[in-house]
Automatic annotation (TrEMBL):
Keywords: Hydrolase
GO molecular function, one term: hydrolase activity
UniProt key word Hydrolase: yes
Signal peptide (residue range): none
Taxonomic superkingdom: Bacteria
SUPFAM superfamilies: alpha/beta-Hydrolases
Residue ranges of every copy of the Dienelactone hydrolase domain listed in the record: 23-243
Protein name: Dienelactone hydrolase family protein
InterPro entries according to UniProt: AB_hydrolase_fold, Dienelactn_hydro, Dienelactone_hydrolase-like
E.C. code: 3.1.-.-
């Protein structure tokens, strides 16, 4: 069984709402920070965080759009019917890899205050835009992150100063990179550049390409692929059980 609570934590940029999932009896467990996709905090996101917690982890789900102010709720299927950039662009403009990394100390401090968290090392998992954010967070506090999983993460190697690949030399975490086939946000040339940076930095990682579309893990996305998603869950849980316990 799993307990769920909401809280407000103070970051350098303001007040951030978070959802915390723990064992209902308070049994200590390793912690994982869940970096959402651009579709925001919504029932599907909460359900995924809950499922991860039920597998034996404390899961912290921060609202990465907190700098924007009140918004939503958003329904991805409705969003994809309209002008996606017009709807999500203003929200996404308020966050990013560097800003998300800036929030890392506040998230870790919150976890450190919880008796339900076992150990000092934590994990991170990110989906879509959250994939790069999880990597940036781990590069910002390499002393605290043992493992990072990125599912259909995009723009992992770009010219931006906060490109995820630029954090490679600061990573101490092991990475699992789950890639979609024919993903315009992570084309083969970018994958090669990203993996080259990891190899040069001596980062331990594994990359796996899924026969699915970008966003396949999200159950409320039109491209959701149950077979590929269940494989992703098996890989993710095995990865975190090995690296965090």
């Amino acid at each position: 069984m799993m307990a769920h609570e909401q809280a407000i934590i103070t970051t350098r940029s303001g007040e951030m709402s978070v959802d915390l999932f723990t064992a209902d009896d308070g049994t200590p467990a390793p912690a994982i920070i869940f970096y959402m996709d651009a579709g925001s905090i919504r029932p599907a996101t909460l359900a995924m965080a809950a499922r991860l917690s039920e597998a034996g982890f404390v899961v912290l789900l921060p609202d990465l759009f907190y700098r924007y102010g009140p918004y939503g709720p958003l329904d991805p299927k409705e969003v994809f019917k309209g002008d996606v950039k017009a709807i999500l662009g203003p929200l996404m403009a308020t966050t990013g890899n560097a800003r998300s990394a800036e929030d890392t100390d506040a998230l870790l401090a919150f976890l450190d205050s919880r008796t339900e968290v076992a150990g000092v090392k934590v994990g991170a998992v990110g989906f879509c835009m959250g994939g790069g954010m999880a990597i940036a967070a781990a590069g910002t506090r390499p002393d605290r992150f043992a493992a990072v999983a990125s599912f259909h993460g995009g723009n992992l190697a770009t010219e931006a100063p906060d490109s995820p690949h630029s954090y490679a030399t600061r990573l101490d975490a092991e990475l699992y990179i789950a890639v979609a086939e024919n993903d315009g946000s992570y084309p083969p040339a970018m994958a090669e550049q990203f993996e080259h940076a990891l190899n040069e930095a001596g980062v331990s990682y594994r990359s796996e390409t899924y026969p699915a579309a970008h966003g396949w893990m999200k159950p409320d996305f039109p491209v959701y692929d149950e077979t590929a998603a269940e494989h992703g869950w098996r890989e993710m849980l095995a990865f975190f059980r090995r690296t965090l316990r």
